[in-house]
């Protein structure tokens, strides 16, 4: 389902950036939307998915969720009550287990605020808070901002898909052997404010479109 502000966002991006406008025409409606769930559940899923294929990570994430109560607000407390053996048995690596333990402890102690408490905080304040959790870096915090909190002006310049999509959209073919510099993406992205999340979403779509083209 298109974003409720889709028309406004697309009109702005197309007006300030002709190449982005052409990408939008090729990619279609803006389907970026905030997902339901708690901040804890979003972070836990991100930790599980780190450095794994989507299918493998999904299987492990499903096993972990099967160990937890149906009510997401009870997940942090439930994690603390489960043994290491049970959680490792679900497929978690030692490092991911330690990260999820830290996340659960911080959440239970009120150090990982939920949606309502984060509503008045800036993106950078939220990133600073979330990256205090073991195993949570800036990229993971940016994904929470975009896909859990629905923040509209996030540009994860270090994301591989963003860098590839930017190269496909803005660089000539003979310039695409190397990924564009983070600073170049950030600088160009200033024109997309206050809708950089939508621009990022379309850069990911640029990668999808390129993969669909015959070699």
From TrEMBL:
One example GO MF annotation: alkylated DNA binding
Keyword DNA damage: yes
CC terms in the record's Gene Ontology section: cytoplasm; protein-DNA complex
Record keywords: DNA damage, DNA repair
Catalytic EC class: hydrolase
Residues covered by the HhH-GPD domain: 48-208
Catalytic activity entry: Hydrolysis of alkylated DNA, releasing 3-methyladenine, 3-methylguanine, 7-methylguanine and 7-methyladenine
Pfam families per record: HhH-GPD (PF00730)
Family: Belongs to the alkylbase DNA glycosidase AlkA family.
Protein name according to UniProt: DNA-3-methyladenine glycosylase II
Organism ancestry: Bacteria, Pseudomonadati, Planctomycetota, Planctomycetia, Pirellulales
């Amino acid at each position: 389902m298109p974003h409720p502000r889709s028309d406004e966002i697309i009109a702005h991006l197309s007006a300030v950036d002709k190449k982005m406008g052409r990408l939008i025409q090729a990619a279609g409606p803006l389907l970026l939307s905030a997902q339901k769930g708690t901040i804890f559940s979003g972070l836990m899923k991100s930790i599980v998915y780190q450095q794994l294929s989507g299918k493998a990570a999904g299987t492990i994430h499903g096993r972990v969720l099967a160990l937890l109560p149906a009510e997401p607000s009870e997940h942090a407390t439930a994690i603390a009550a489960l043994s290491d053996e049970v959680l490792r048995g679900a497929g978690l690596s030692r490092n991911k287990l330690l990260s999820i333990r830290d996340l659960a402890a911080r959440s239970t102690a009120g150090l990982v605020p939920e949606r309502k408490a984060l509503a008045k905080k800036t993106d950078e304040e939220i990133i600073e808070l979330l990256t205090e959790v073991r195993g949570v870096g800036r990229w993971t915090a940016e994904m929470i901002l975009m896909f859990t909190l629905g923040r509209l002006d996030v540009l994860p310049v270090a994301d591989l898909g963003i860098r590839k999509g930017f190269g496909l959209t803005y660089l000539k073919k003979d310039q695409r052997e190397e990924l564009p510099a983070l600073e170049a993406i950030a600088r160009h992205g200033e024109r997309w404010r206050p809708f950089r999340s939508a621009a990022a979403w379309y850069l990911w779509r640029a990668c999808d479109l390129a993969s669909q083209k015959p070699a």
